[in-house]
Design goal:
The complex is a heterodimer of chains A (168) and B (191). By secondary structure, chain A is mainly alpha-helical. Chain A contains 5 helices and no strands. Helices cover 82% and strands 0% of the residues of chain A. Chain B is globular and about 55 Å long. The chains are: A mainly alpha (168), B mainly alpha (191).
Chain lengths: 168, 191
């Protein structure tokens, strides 16, 4: 429930304009007997004085400095916003590279198995098919460098992607 | 996100010098508005955050957001209320963030240290401000906002409602309760 007093506005005005308590006449007598206005004076005077003191003591930066900083920051944000599509394209390119590397790795992996099977088949054949066996062994021997290259790609591509997108 | 180098900042500064229209408000109008409002806004931020140093940062951020909003205002009072709304939201955001140590009385204690010891008025004033700071610290954040806007800033109920995002009809009751509570705390000496 709100307790109100018709003289609240007068009290508030007296405090706001610095007339309280010396130049208030009968208002001071009223406040002494009115709980609502007594609370109002207590609070309004404390806050009014505190604000006045803080405003006197405040040392805000100059308007020019605030304007300059705000303008610089707005420009920097605009530049970042403009650069965002480029970063997205770079990210897509990186993702495509990773996808292609994964595809190549899969194909290479299957090729190695296929060549291994040929090698096993060749070993199982008689010596008169030695030419097929030697070809299979050759392919299996070169499969390792291919595997290493693909693995390096898989490791480096996400790293490149991270570095590209790190600026965002 | 990387920090900008000095040369990049200078380049941006050059861009600023040659191009206008970054904000809706021009620099001269901003200077006038800033001169009229910066101290009251700083006082509000300082008392609501309880940290004078933090108030410096929040002040810069408040004016930046104000400029970036590019909102047209029908009057200077409306513009000022909008700025206070931004300041209020900044303080709310700050309150939500975890802090290493709460120091709502830091500037109040500092005030006493810096008061002129030969001046009884100054000493009394410092004690009253410390009492107020202690008492305000015991209020709810919304009560602090309400009381400051109403009795320090002199805002109307409608303006307070707009600034704090409350219904105008509820301001009277909320303000009455907050006022009664603060008056009680002040009479106890903020303890």
């Amino acid at each position: 429930m709100i307790a109100e007093c018709v003289r609240e506005a007068d009290v508030l005005e007296a405090v706001a304009f610095g007339r309280w308590p010396d130049r208030c006449g009968d208002l001071a007598a009223h406040v002494a007997s009115c709980e609502v206005c007594s609370d109002l004076v207590e609070v309004a005077r404390a806050l009014h004085d505190d604000r006045a003191w803080l405003c006197r003591e405040a040392q805000p930066p100059s308007a020019g400095m605030v304007w300059w900083r705000a303008t610089i920051r707005a420009r920097a944000e605009a530049a970042r916003t403009a650069a965002r599509p480029i970063s997205v394209l770079q990210g897509i390119a990186g993702a495509c590279f990773v996808g292609a590397a994964a595809g190549i790795a899969t194909v290479a992996w299957h090729s190695i198995h296929w060549m291994d099977r040929i090698g096993e088949l060749a070993v199982s054949l008689e010596s008169r098919r030695a030419d097929i066996a030697s070809a299979s062994t050759f392919a299996a021997g070169h499969g390792l460098p291919i595997l290493i290259a693909v693995a390096a790609g898989l490791v480096l591509a996400p790293l490149a992607l991270y570095i590209t997108l790190a600026d965002d | 996100m990387h920090d900008m180098t000095l040369s990049e900042l200078e380049q941006l500064g050059d861009d600023v010098a040659v191009s206008e229209g970054t904000f809706q408000m021009d620099e001269d109008a901003f200077r006038l508005f800033y001169e009229r409002t910066s101290r009251p806004v700083w006082a509000y931020l300082s008392r609501m955050s309880g940290d004078a140093k933090l108030a410096d940062d929040l002040l810069q951020e408040a004016y930046y957001r104000f400029l970036r909003a590019n909102v047209s205002h029908e009057s200077d009072a409306h513009r000022r209320n909008y700025l206070f709304r931004i300041a209020t939201n900044l303080v709310r955001d700050m309150r939500r963030r975890p802090r290493v140590a709460e120091s709502p009385l830091a500037d109040g204690i500092g005030n006493i240290e810096h008061a002129d010891p030969q001046s009884a008025d100054a000493a009394n004033g410092a004690v009253r401000r410390l009492d107020l700071a202690r008492s305000m610290a015991r209020l709810k954040p919304r009560e602090r906002d309400l009381l400051w806007l109403a009795y320090a800033q002199g805002s109307s109920h409608k303006e307070i409602a707009e600034t704090l995002g409350l219904k105008a009809a509820s301001i009277k009751l909320l303000l009455f309760r907050a006022r009664r509570r603060l008056a009680g705390l002040l009479r106890e000496g903020g303890r």
